Amino acid sequence: MKELGEQPDALRRMVEYYSDEGLPKLKQWAVEAKKNKRGIFTGMGTSEFAPEMIFPALADKGIEAMTIDAGEWLHYPRPMKGLPVLISQSGESVETRMLAERLTAPYIAITNNENSLIGRKASLVLLMCAGEEAAISTKTYVNTLGLLHLMCKAVCGEKEIEKGLVSLALAADRMNENDRAGIAETALLLAEAKYLHFVSRGPAMAAARQAALTFMEGTRLSSTALTGGAFRHGPFELAGMGHHVVFFAPSGSTHDLLSAMAHETAAKRSKVVVITDGNIEKTAGLKILHTPNLGENLFPISVAMTQELLLYETAKQRGIEAGKFRYGSKITVRE
Fold this sequence. Notes:
The chain is α/β, with parallel strands linked by helices. The protein has helices at 2-5, 7-19, 23-36, 46-49, 55-60, 70-75, 94-102, 117-121, 139-154, 158-174, 180-191, 205-218, 228-232, 255-267, 299-302, 304-317, and strands spanning 38-43, 64-69, 83-88, 108-111, 124-127, 195-200, 222-227, 244-248, 271-276, 286-290.
């Protein structure tokens, strides 16, 4: 909870860094991205799927992007054309570190530790500026998202970087706008689940995948993240008594699709939670949590505190201390 509460200040620290000392690094990234026209983002867990937040916006700017599990790339090499971007908050995650040692092409590192192995070997290091973190990813997650947002803006020039910095400063100011009472009530609902689905689309899939990963870490509930389309193609058969699902439904191009699916799922007697920055009709069986409206592209940041508080409260209801690892550690050093 201490680290969770430090997120706004961590995000402000990153904004300050890229307003000054880090600005040339953003510009250098933009030159490389436009030259290669394709980015290959890789990491493990959060580091692998956080970049999904910016893929639609990068595509609009003529930059193709993809993610790949660093361990899969390491053990099953394949031809990759594009600019590698290695992401690791510690810079020492075993698969990402081994991949950095093997790569012959120049790569860009996104890390919280520029003196780590992936930082030392990189042609360019983009710092998260998140500060120390010991528990489940909170500050490093949000700052990774914020940095990725700035990287996307940088492709369009310095004026867009300035707009990105302003939007992140606003996000930091509004991160604490949470429905604490509603979150506590929702945790009671989720604590009784046997498994959880997290469903979304577009940039918000970064939030859904982060939620699935951290709920498994922190509440020990089996969880899966699915796009709205993937949920319809098979898993929808699980809807009904005993089924629990959380929809991330930001205002945007698929808000109405996700809203309609949430209502349909609730009508089949699933326990349904919708986390949104928009308007959704209240109906029986539907629990709604509202987050600040910062736009669809920044939704994963605006929703971060809500989903982390929900994780904490759900774990507490299940008699678990969120963030206390039983078998692993903050830095994974063993494959």
